[in-house]
Amino acid sequence: MRILIINLYAGAPSMGMEYRPYYLANYWKKAGHKVLVVTASHHHLRSKQFESVKDIKKQNVDGIDYLVFKTPDYSRNTIKRVLNIFAFLRKLSTSKKRIAAEFNPDIVIASSTFVFDIYSAKKIASICNSKLVFEVCDLWPLSIIELGGFSKWHPFIMAMQMAENYAFKHTDKVVTVLPEAKEYMVEHGLKPEKFIYVPNGIVVEDWNIEIEIPHWLNELILKIKLQKKKIIGYAGNHGVANALFPLIDAMQILQNDNVVLFLIGRGQEKENLKQKVKQYNLNNVHFIDPLPKTFIPALLDKLDILYIGLQNQPVFRFGISPNKLMDYMMAGKPIIQAIKAGNDITTEAKCGISIEPENTRAIADAVQYLLSLSDEELMELGENGRRFCLKYHDYQILSKKFLDAVSN
Asked: Are residues 241 and 197 in the same domain?
């Protein structure tokens, strides 16, 4: 089959997030299908951008074909990001007949978060008599209404809601990473039998590659371990939604315990987090700049406890499927999950402790509880997570589930 993926935010292992379109495309290609990913030259999630794109350019990245539209660069949530989105949509609209004629897909997948790409995706699917799939990783506009405080009567929000409703009514299937979103989607026009849940996952081969982390980081970890201290790790974005300030507050409570925190990554709150650590005069918190994704398995393997948190927000009632949680589980380490959501993977997998979000005391108590366990008990929690991840979150299995459900 010929599969077209439309995703402004598509990335690749050598370029950074988003990884899901690449991983699915790669397994579909291995299964004998032809895949084309339509994406933008610039977006804020990538660590490396597509360069030398004057208008539209076809490029092969890490073995996958991309059709890249030139879009303006931006770094924060400003008007430039909106211009980036509409530049992508304009080029998609003007290129839809060309894409239909030259690629002639059997399946068209619209998976850009902001939903407006559904109109061009529908047109391409109609021209080629192909199946149309609407992939949902976040519920827009609901997420920006509840997280950003926007009114549902804002013209941009209303236009986005119309696009989402159109997608639910006109798509052949909806594939989502949100396990509890079916009722919401049905309320907005989706037929129940069109709902398919395919969570985020991992690529098993990535965890079988032996690689050394940077020497300076390895030396720091060795120094901490020689002091008989455990290392808590957080790897990911340092944004508002990640609720990292309660974790810093917990480290103040734990400053006399044999535990150290590694905050690995970047984000808009990183400097504020550093100021908070300085204000508390903490010496048990280390900030680590982002490392290439290939280093993550080796780094997580050297840590002892892994932390994930989100703000206490109602939008998570539809469930979550965080990429970092899958990485944590594959690392085989006990997890502290400070999230209130429609699903609870950590509890289901019996791989750690699930606590209420943004609760400093609960975080500190969870750390102290895990510190009280034996190495064997900690290892059992970690192995539970790894087994669960291999069973339910292997992208090779998920890619087949996705395509089988869409094809039937």
From this structure: no
**Pairing mode of beta strands 56-61, 64-69:** antiparallel
The predicted-structure confidence for 40-78, as pLDDT tens digits, reads as follows 999 988 888 888 788 999 999 989 999 999 999 887 677
Distances (CA, A) of 329 to 19, 291, 386: 18, 19, 5
Report d(CA 327, CA 245) in Å as an integer.
22
- What strands, in cross-sheet order, belong to the sheet with 2-6? 56-61, 64-69, 34-40, 2-6, 107-110, 131-136, 173-176, 195-197
Confidence of residue 191 (pLDDT cuts 50, 70, 90): very high
Domain that holds residue 50: 2-201+394-407
Mark whether 165 and 275 lie in a shared domain. no
For residue 11, which amino acid is it?
A: G
Q: Give the tokens for residue 372.
A: 């009280």
Question: What's the whole-number mean pLDDT along residues 164-184?
Answer: 98
Q: Across-strand partners of 285?
A: 261
Residues 387 and 399 in one domain: no
Give the number of domains in the chain.
2
What is the H or E stretch that residue 69 is in?
strand 64-69
Q: In this structure, are residues 171 and 185 in contact, taking their beta carbons and an 8 Å threshold?
A: no
Report the C-alpha gap between 302 and 77 in whole angstroms: 35
Distances (CA, A) of 61 to 14, 21, 95: 8, 12, 21
208-246 core/surface letters (b: 16 or more CB in 10 A; e: else) = eeeeebeeebeebbeebeeeeebbbbbbbbbeebbbbbb
Beta strand spans in 202-268 (E): 230-235, 259-264
How far apart, in whole angstroms, are the C-alpha atoms of residue 316 and residue 313? 6
Percent of the chain residues topping a pLDDT of 70: 100
349 and 402 together in one domain: no
230/350 same-domain check:
yes
Q: Is residue 333 within 8 Å of 303, Cβ to Cβ?
A: yes
